[in-house]
Amino acid sequence: MNREDPAREHPAAPEEAVASPLHRGLTWEELPVGLSFRTGARTITETDFINFVTWAGFTEPLFLDASDSAAGHGRRLVPAALTYSLAEGLVIQTLAFAGTGIAFLGMDLKVRQPVYVGDTVHAVVAISESRATRNPSRGLVVSTIKVHNHHGDEVLEYSPARLVRRSATAAD
């Protein structure tokens, strides 16, 4: 490396150059049934809990009164809506749908076990349905997303249906 003149090793890009995205999400063709991936993990903090409960209006004692929340559980219970929101955020952070996701159409959600403040969760995404739509520029993808805690227990499962862009060649 030439420390005196770094431009010799890395010439400047022309001014008219346009930056391209560092990552493009997966197209419908790249999301076949059976494809699966794991997200990163996230620990649910007391701050996450308080912010969500306050913002979302979960004003029942089960969530606002720490002693009531812990009654029967021993620890502060997290709303399933917060667990789902964090899991969906972890899915989005994988960039699987970056620039290719068009719409979230709906989902089925099942709570399997309670989640508590201090738990660390991650999600495993498996494509369970994938089909073309009448519009040749998009396809429908349904996935089964299983959320696990740091003990490996499945705590939540949901199955979102999403419209996803097809590759440019498929749309032509």
From TrEMBL:
<dbReference type="Pfam" id="PF13452">
    <property type="entry name" value="FAS1_DH_region"/>
</dbReference>
<dbReference type="InterPro" id="IPR029069">
    <property type="entry name" value="HotDog_dom_sf"/>
</dbReference>
<feature type="domain" description="FAS1-like dehydratase">
    <location>
        <begin position="33"/>
        <end position="156"/>
    </location>
</feature>
<dbReference type="InterPro" id="IPR039569">
    <property type="entry name" value="FAS1-like_DH_region"/>
</dbReference>
<protein>
    <recommendedName>
        <fullName>FAS1-like dehydratase domain-containing protein</fullName>
    </recommendedName>
</protein>
<feature type="region of interest" description="Disordered">
    <location>
        <begin position="1"/>
        <end position="21"/>
    </location>
</feature>
<feature type="compositionally biased region" description="Basic and acidic residues">
    <location>
        <begin position="1"/>
        <end position="13"/>
    </location>
</feature>
<dbReference type="InterPro" id="IPR052342">
    <property type="entry name" value="MCH/BMMD"/>
</dbReference>
